[in-house]
Amino acid sequence: MDMKSKKEMRKEMLKARDCLTQEEVRRCSERICAVIAETEAYEKAGNICLYMPVRNEVEVTLMEKQARKDGKTLWIPKVEGEILTFYRWDEDMEMTTGSFGIREPGGSAAQPLTALTEQTPVLVIMPGTVFSERRDRIGYGGGYYDRFLTGRKNDRTIAVCYDFQIMKELPAEVHDVRPDMIVSEKRMIK
Fold this sequence. Notes:
This protein is of the alpha/beta class and 190 residues long.
């Protein structure tokens, strides 16, 4: 089977995603967030890792108000060298623009996720560029989520994307972490 390289697929998907209007991004993001809020993984999670969206990624930050109302503790990532560290997202947290132009926790008051043990189940909501119906995932090429999730056996993972980002199959590698679930504006893949 002749399959495009990960790099080519990533480039094509990012180009297609960049073409979405703000209205399309908002409408799809609201739908995706509503579906996530109905999952058992969300209901059981006391701690939820979100991400700060860039370049028309699904706006998972739309979940913030409801998640706080539901008593969830929220965490957001910061790239520190080759490592993705999640920090507790407090409403008055100082934010800075970090790696790749992404908003991330700033200041020294931020509390890192290491405050949670690996036995504490966390729901990690993760972005990506391309996904398969078998739940394979192509991220942005840095392997940050793969490294973060390695060894965290109790965590649940939900990858979010627009439906056009889901292919029949993808080239997967052994170290690639498969999310437990993929949610798009049209379907949920478990």
